[in-house]
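Lab notebook, bench 4. The sequencing result for the construct came back, and we need a structural model before the next group meeting so we can plan mutations. Quick request posted to the team channel:

Model the 3D structure of this chain.
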Amino acid sequence: MQRTTWLYGIAAVLALAAPLPAAAQGELVVYCTVQEEWCRPMVTAFEKATGIKVSMTRKSSGEFYAQLKAEAANPRGDIWWGGTGDPHLQAAEEGLTEPYKSPKMAELQDWAVRQWDVSKGRTVGVYAGALGYSYNVDQLKKKNIAEPKCWSDLTKPAFKDEIQVANPNSSGTSYTMLATFVQLMGEDKAFEYMKALHKNVNQYTKSGAAPARAAATGESMVGITFQHDAVVQAIGGAPVKIVSPCEGTGYEIGSMSIVKGAKNMENAKRWYDWALGAEAQSIGAQAKVSYQVPSNKSASAPPQAPKFSEIKLINYDFAKYGSSAERTRLLTKWDKEVSTLPK
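Done. Here's the predicted structure in token form:
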């Protein structure tokens, strides 16, 4: 009897001394809008650092924006991490996300803090990336086509059915492209340009990064994406060249937002603070899938990341083109005037 009591006592002490399992620390639902290969190591590192069990879903920015609207009465996600800033700003405007000021704000680049200011504290910048395109060098030589250097080159007859780009309704990348053209050329000329480009597009994909992979494999000759998505392919050995168009180009501020009414609100804030730290912002580069410019001042940009100082960037109006009204108007116009056109 004494031995049994002693054993129970030891078991109780060991139970108290043992670390709590991850489930005991709570849970978190993450909506992730970067590459799957970047989402997963982020989740693994956060679980290891906090003991919080994470459920992660990966979709494009436009898809998650639509999902947040559909789930507004009964939110399923807690934190929306990554993806172009425009849909995050639209979600903020519609009250789909929660205001929060992280103690990490002082560590961030000015452009990341401006994103937070514009959204009234409902979203923050986590990285930045410039728009552009990549082309398959081997395919270009094989078909004896002159090297494209500008946006205007992509409407030439030589590129008939050779270009892949995402649908701006589902892809934050391509909505940034649409808004970039409007700011760069003026709305009328921008839509005339996109009508001409449409004749050369072989596919409008759901994912913004997919056209970079298509150019890398030779499925398409040209892929319009953020430049960092093409860098991933180039570093992997693909025969691609990345172009910063001569006329100038737009850029994204990849963002992060807490879902309004999140069921795991405190854990969402823990992810938010952790993801703004320099250590977390180095994970993508270590996994060799992230070549964006990080928002934490102490996080080093990968040497292969496109250098903003060498790119002709437009003065992108995030407030205007991040508004729901402007997004809806431009997408409706694109659907009506561009996507339905015959090739």
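The CA atoms of residues 29 and 55 lie 5 Å apart.
Will bring this to the meeting.
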